[in-house]
Every structure is written in C-alpha cells, then in structure tokens.
Amino acid sequence: MDVNFQHNDLAAGRWFELSLDNQLGNIGAEVGRSINWKNKGNHKQSARALDRGLELFDLTLADRRWNQPKLKEIARAREVVCDFLVGDNEYKSDEKSLNNYFTQFAIAARANR
Hints:
mainly alpha, 113 residues, 70% helix
C-alpha cells in the first residue's frame, strides 16, 4: 500500500529515533497550530495542521518502543484532540488544557537534550 506522508523524512525512520517526549511535543505543535488557525476562522489551514498532527500521532502509535499503557494514553490523546477540533467536544476539553498537556512534553524534551 502506498501512503503519502506530509512528514516524509520522519515517516522514513527519523521519527522512531525521537524520544516519546519529543514526539508528543511535536504533535502538540501541530495541534496548537490547528487551534490557532481555527480561532482565526481559517478552517482550511486548521484542517491541514490537524492532518499533520494526526499523521504524527499515527507514527507514534506505530512506534514499537512504546508499551501498552503508553499506547493507550497516546490513542486517548488523539481521540481527545479530534473530539475538540472536529467532534462534539464530549470530553469538555479546552484550548488551555490541550496546550498544557502537550507543553509538558515539549519542556521535558528540551530538558533532556
């Protein structure tokens, strides 16, 4: 099956060299971009950023280094992001809670450089 990735270099293997903190921090950057574009009323750019974020989520879920508890949290985070950005927000998430969640990973990734 041919799959077209927006992050070709990452999908080719570089993603699987990053720490989980780094992976989730990068996902958070795309989620943040999607939220920002949505707030500006640019739904096309918001959808593009969300697509990139979902691609990174899927690459993270495919990373064989992560065990079941981690995979469960990653999958739940993906679900919450989708629910907030394109769903009915059944989880009652907000911009601040999502940014806070992902920021912690970005901070940890920077601290462990």
